[in-house]
Specification:
ten-stranded mixed beta sheet; 22% strand; DHBP synthase; 33% helix; 211 residues; alpha/beta; globular; single chain
Length: 211
């Protein structure tokens, strides 16, 4: 396993990006908790994420992107409310469930067989640079065994899944462990599936619709 500590050099970012693009599985910090991720287009690697986490196969994986072009490749037409949410909260801790682009070759494991896909443009500086350099979206569920506490403490992560991953970026324990807020726009309404760092009030104020 490759181990990286603290702030990464440009060379290390390039190295990790290439590894992830090839389908290697890394643990890395996001703007919420530590994630465990890989290339969202790599079928076998996405399947392995489920196996490592012991995650039920009906639970989709959230996808991290670095720019709007990646979003356009993953999704169908973006509606007006989704555009408002993107303009207000991206990059940042808001995950939006979109209609999946029927023509993309993304792993079936990402959406767990659904016709939707959860996407977040991360503002985690380190992982954003890695995604941009790799030029592929990255799946990023929390780095923990399914049902356990979200991945915030390095030693716990190492104890639970350290033997099954290809690399880890260690920035120390994370203490602000609020997850991303998870929403879906349905019938011109915002449905909050999980309230996290962004509140219902903030969402309602920006979108100007009832939640």
């Amino acid at each position: 396993m490759k181990y990286y500590k603290g702030k990464l050099s440009n060379q290390e970012i390039a190295e990790i990006s290439e590894e992830i693009k090839k389908g290697k599985i890394f643990v890395f910090p996001t703007e919420t908790v530590y994630g465990i991720g890989t290339n969202a287009y790599n079928e076998e690697s996405c399947k392995k994420i489920y196996e490592i986490k012991k995650r039920p196969n009906w639970k989709p994986l959230i996808v991290l992107i670095s720019d709007i072009e990646m979003l356009k490749n993953l999704t169908e037409e973006i509606n007006d409310i989704e555009k408002k949410l993107i303009e207000a909260f991206w990059p940042g801790p808001l995950t939006i469930i979109f209609q999946k682009n029927k023509n993309i070759s993304i792993s079936k494991y990402v959406s767990a067989g659904l016709d939707t896909i959860g996407v977040r443009m991360t503002d985690g500086e380190m992982i954003q640079k890695i995604i941009k350099k790799a030029n592929v979206p990255i799946v990023a569920p929390s780095a923990n065994l399914s049902g356990k506490t979200d991945g915030t403490k390095i030693q716990e992560i190492m104890d639970e899944i350290g033997n099954d991953i290809d690399g880890i970026i260690d920035i120390g324990d994370i203490y602000d462990s609020n997850p991303s807020t998870l929403v879906q726009v349905m019938d011109n309404q915002i449905k909050v599936l999980r309230e996290g760092k962004i509140s219902k009030e903030q969402l309602s104020e920006i979108a100007e619709v009832m939640i």
